[in-house]
Write a structure and sequence with these properties.
With 144 residues, this protein is mainly β. It contains two helices and eleven strands; from the N terminus they run βββββαββββαββ.
């Protein structure tokens, strides 16, 4: 496990985590440090990428043959292309987490930012500290 230092990220209009992505061949984004990505409890998957990031990391090399189907809050359906990848959380100093990476199938509905979903966030006990504008990871609760 990581050391017991406080592990936090900003929480302004939405909660964020600092991550780095890795494809199965070892290509990483960003190359150094971490990318702040929004935690979206309305997305039930693990991570959703913009098409540009998905293609830059060559996740198309590891795509599943069929897209995954997700039902939105309004009852409509969206199809997401799925591939295998990894998330690293540099501040936690842990081994990479194996994940299912998604991107939106329909290009006109592409997202412009990386989104962490509930399936990945459930691996942690997160404290959303509104008054301090921080997201805390309670490290004794990390699940692989």
């Amino acid at each position: 496990m990581a050391n017991e230092e406080e592990v936090t990220w900003p929480y302004t209009n939405a909660p964020y985590l600092g991550i780095r992505l890795k494809n199965p061949s070892g290509l990483e984004y960003p190359l150094d440090g971490e990318e702040l990505v929004m935690i979206d409890t309305g997305f039930s998957g693990e991570i959703l990428l913009p098409k540009s990031v998905y293609e830059d990391l060559e996740f198309n090399m590891w795509e599943e043959p069929e897209p995954d189907e997700f039902v939105l809050g309004d009852g409509s359906t969206v199809y997401l292309i799925a591939a295998h990848g990894y998330i690293l959380i540099p501040k936690l100093h842990l081994a990479p987490f194996s994940i299912r990476v998604h991107r939106i199938y329909e290009e006109e509905k592409d997202t412009d930012e990386i989104i962490i979903g509930v399936r990945f966030a459930k691996r942690f006990r997160l404290l959303l500290d509104g008054p301090a504008n921080k997201v805390h990871v309670l490290q004794d609760t990390v699940k692989f």
